[in-house]
């Protein structure tokens, strides 16, 4: 079955530290890849997405992610986190063989940034 | 555009009661989804719809029903509520092979 794995369930960082959240998926065909963010008490919002082209994609608020096809990975990065980045982050994959309408979400990574 | 709206925001049900969670989107999206989110478990797909009149089960459909009579609306029905249905429910819509837009969620408690 197709799945999305997020390596860390909880991450605690100090402000200005660098962030990398791991995401791997199990599907060998064409995929669209997403990272969503959920701030405390809010709904999920799109952070960034990858469809094709440059495997390094930039999103909002200084986030970026790199698609490495050979590793089936789509890791999220930010050079310097802020307290306001405290949130839960979800990696998501839309496999091509679902007709493009089913998205599989990872379990999420909770990030807490200490001021 | 209001995007995806959900009502109610909060609800407490007694075991065995029924209710309908409402979801409306004004983006003319064909695809709509219902998820439940439990702590540390990510999002689980309950039901989805690829267009008006067409619905299908997701990972965790038991205890729920849906209908899609219009493009805009995708209500989720809970029959005979059970404590295991205590969760946060999110509705989402999508244009097609793209990002999903989420509603603000409904926090449901079954006592």
Walk me through the structure:
The complex is a heterodimer of chains A (115) and B (111). Helices cover 0% and strands 51% of the residues of chain A. Chain A is mostly beta strands and 115 residues long. Chain A has a single domain, classed as Immunoglobulin-like (Sandwich), CATH 2.60.40.10. In chain A, the strands form three sheets. In chain A, strands 2, 5, 6, 10, 11 and 12 form a six-stranded mixed beta sheet that branches. Chain A is globular and about 45 Å long. The mean pLDDT of chain A is 92. Chain B has 111 residues and is mainly β. Chain B has a single domain, classed as Immunoglobulins (Immunoglobulin-like, Sandwich), CATH 2.60.40. In chain B, the strands form two sheets. In chain B, strands 2, 4, 5, 6, 9, 10 and 11 form a seven-stranded mixed beta sheet that branches. In chain B, strands 1-3-8-7 form a four-stranded antiparallel beta sheet, with no helix packed on it. Chain B is globular and about 35 Å long. Chains A and B meet through strand 6 of A and strand 5 and strand 9 of B.
Task: Write a compact overview of the structure shown.
By secondary structure, chain A is mainly β. Chain A contains no helices and 12 strands.
Topology:
The complex is a heterodimer of chains A (115) and B (111).
Chain A: E1 4-6, E2 10-14, E3 19-21, E4 23-25, E5 31-38, E6 45-50, E7 56-58, E8 64-68, E9 73-78, E10 87-95, E11 104-105, E12 109-114
Parallel strand pairs in A: 2-12
Antiparallel strand pairs in A: 1-4, 3-9, 5-6, 5-10, 7-8, 8-9, 10-11, 10-12
Chain B: E1 4-7, E2 10-13, E3 19-25, E4 31-37, E5 43-51, E6 54-57, E7 64-66, E8 76-78, E9 87-94, E10 100-102, E11 106-110
Parallel strand pairs in B: 2-11
Antiparallel strand pairs in B: 1-3, 3-8, 4-5, 4-9, 5-6, 7-8, 9-10, 9-11
């Amino acid at each position: 079955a197709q799945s999305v794995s997020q390596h860390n369930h909880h991450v605690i960082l100090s402000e200005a530290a660098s962030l990398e959240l791991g995401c791997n998926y199990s599907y060998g065909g064409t995929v669209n890849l997403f990272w969503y963010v959920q701030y405390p008490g809010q709904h999920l919002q799109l952070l960034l997405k990858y469809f094709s082209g440059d495997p390094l994609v930039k999103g909002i608020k200084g986030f970026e992610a790199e698609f490495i096809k050979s590793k089936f990975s789509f890791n999220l990065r930010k050079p310097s986190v802020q307290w306001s980045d405290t949130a839960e982050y979800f990696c998501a994959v839309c496999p091509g063989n679902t007709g493009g309408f089913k998205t599989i979400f990872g379990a999420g990574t909770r990030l807490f940034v200490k001021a | 555009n209001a995007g995806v709206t959900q009502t109610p925001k909060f609800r407490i049900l007694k075991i065995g009661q029924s209710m309908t969670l409402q979801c409306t989107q004004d983006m003319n999206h064909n695809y709509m989804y219902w998820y439940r989110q439990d702590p540390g478990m990510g999002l689980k797909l309950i039901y989805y719809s690829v267009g008006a009149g067409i619905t299908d089960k997701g990972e965790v459909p038991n205890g729920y029903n849906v209908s899609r009579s219009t493009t805009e609306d995708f209500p989720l029905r809970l029959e005979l509520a059970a404590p295991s249905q205590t969760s946060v429910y999110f509705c989402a819509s999508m244009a097609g092979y793209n990002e999903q837009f989420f509603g603000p969620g409904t926090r449901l408690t079954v006592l």
